[in-house]
């Protein structure tokens, strides 16, 4: 039986990856900062909370990570932990930079010291590329990195740290440069989760309106449960590499809103309000990628249409809200 260590196991990607690896008969060990305050709702909703082993660890403490590696002897290490909100990174730039860079360096150094055969997956981000002229899109792995937020700066630094450790120490490190990937397990401060959960509450007469910022932005949105499968693929090919994971097409936030509300039988013009206070200091207007390398080297292809994505997100959110009501009413 293979063993996988996962940081960020209580987040969206960590929960779905745990379920996927358990289905592949892995032993899954999740690293969390605080066992007492950790939010296990995602793992619980997916029905795997009792099937993973959770351990408390401080990724800022190199010796702490070394002890974990020596104890569990993992075959694979998935580093999904990060301060992942672009908006919050403008409010907390120093904390974002510290957490997203130092934690990665400590993990790589610990693995270099303990066992260089451990395969490492690092979650990178499409935000690293910043504002790209629409004429130059789509983005591929050879694009110049030009971050436009503290979050993007931190992910770019972590990304290059991984490249350096791979080249200098011959570690098996693959980075997934994931474009926006959504699910019911997104936190409420992510716009897609906010839109869908709010629209359902409006339909059920539990909310009067939804406030949004800039709806002209265009993003490459995919379905998170599909994206985590390629994380595993990256560590199960002969050579490590960096891969852009995306759908290859962009849609406006306005289109996303209109489709969600229309599918729920609601008029978006009646219920959606615009609030300039929700605009970011620096916003990426249009971004989408080219997943050709992942298709070629990993035999991976994203299969959902934009409409199918929204149908799944709505269906999952309804199930989640029903699950949450039954959980809290016990």
- Flag low-confidence runs: none
CATH class of the largest domain: Alpha Beta
- The beta-strand count equals 13
Please give the share of residues in helix. Answer: 40-55%
CATH names the topology of the largest domain as Rossmann fold
User: How many helices in DSSP terms?
Assistant: 12
Order of helices and strands: EHEHEHEHHEHEEHEEEHEEHHEHH
**Named CATH architecture of the largest domain:** 3-Layer(aba) Sandwich
In CATH terms, the superfamily of the largest domain is NAD(P)-binding Rossmann-like Domain
Description:
The mean pLDDT is 94. The strands form four sheets. Strands 3-2-1-4-5-6-11 form a seven-stranded parallel beta sheet, sandwiched between helices. The longest helix has 23 residues, at 306-328. With 330 residues, it is α/β, with parallel strands linked by helices. Helix 1 (12-23) packs across helix 8. It has two domains: 3-182 and 221-245, Rossmann fold (3-Layer(aba) Sandwich), CATH 3.40.50.720; 191-219 and 250-286 and 306-328, UDP-galactose 4-epimerase, domain 1, CATH 3.90.25. Strand 5 (119-125), helix 6 (150-169) and strand 6 form a beta-alpha-beta unit. It is built from twelve helices and 13 strands. It has helices at residues 12-23, 41-45, 62-72, 86-91, 93-114, 150-169, 191-203, 224-234, 253-263, 268-271, 292-298, 306-328, and strands at residues 3-7, 27-32, 53-56, 76-79, 119-125, 173-178, 181-182, 210-212, 218-219, 222-223, 242-245, 251-252, 272-274. The radius of gyration is 20 Å and the shape is globular.
């Amino acid at each position: 039986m293979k063993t996988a260590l996962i940081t960020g196991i209580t987040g969206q990607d960590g929960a779905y990856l745990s379920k996927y690896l358990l289905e592949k008969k892995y032993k899954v060990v999740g690293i969390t900062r605080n066992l007492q305050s950790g939010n296990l709702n995602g793992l619980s909703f997916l029905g795997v909370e009792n099937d993973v082993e959770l351990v408390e660890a401080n990724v800022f403490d190199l010796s702490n990570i070394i002890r974990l590696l020596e104890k569990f002897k993992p075959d694979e290490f998935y580093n999904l932990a990060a301060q992942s909100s672009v908006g919050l990174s403008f409010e907390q730039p120093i904390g974002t930079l510290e957490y997203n860079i130092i934690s990665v360096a400590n993990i790589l150094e610990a693995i270099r010291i303990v066992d260089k055969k451990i395969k490492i997956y690092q979650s990178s981000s499409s935000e690293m590329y910043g504002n790209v002229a629409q004429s130059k899109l789509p983005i591929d792995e050879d694009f110049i990195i030009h971050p436009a937020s503290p979050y993007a700066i931190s992910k770019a630094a972590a990304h290059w740290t991984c490249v350096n450790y791979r080249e200098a120490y011959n570690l098996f490190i693959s980075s997934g440069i994931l474009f926006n990937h959504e699910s019911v397990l997104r936190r409420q401060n992510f716009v897609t989760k906010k839109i869908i959960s709010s629209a359902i509450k409006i339909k059920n007469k539990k909310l009067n309106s939804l406030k949004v910022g800039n709806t002209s932005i265009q993003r490459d949105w995919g379905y998170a449960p599909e994206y985590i499968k390629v994380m595993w693929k990256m560590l199960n090919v002969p050579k490590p590499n960096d891969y852009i994971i995306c759908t290859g097409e962009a849609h406006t936030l306005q289109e996303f809103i209109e489709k969600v509300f229309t599918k729920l039988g609601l008029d978006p013009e009646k219920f959606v309000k615009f609030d300039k206070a929700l605009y970011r200091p620096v916003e990426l207007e249009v971004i989408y990628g080219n997943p050709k390398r992942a298709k070629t080297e990993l035999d991976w292809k994203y299969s959902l249409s934009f409409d199918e994505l929204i149908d799944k997100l709505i269906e999952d959110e309804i199930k989640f809200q029903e699950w949450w009501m039954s959980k809290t009413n016990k």
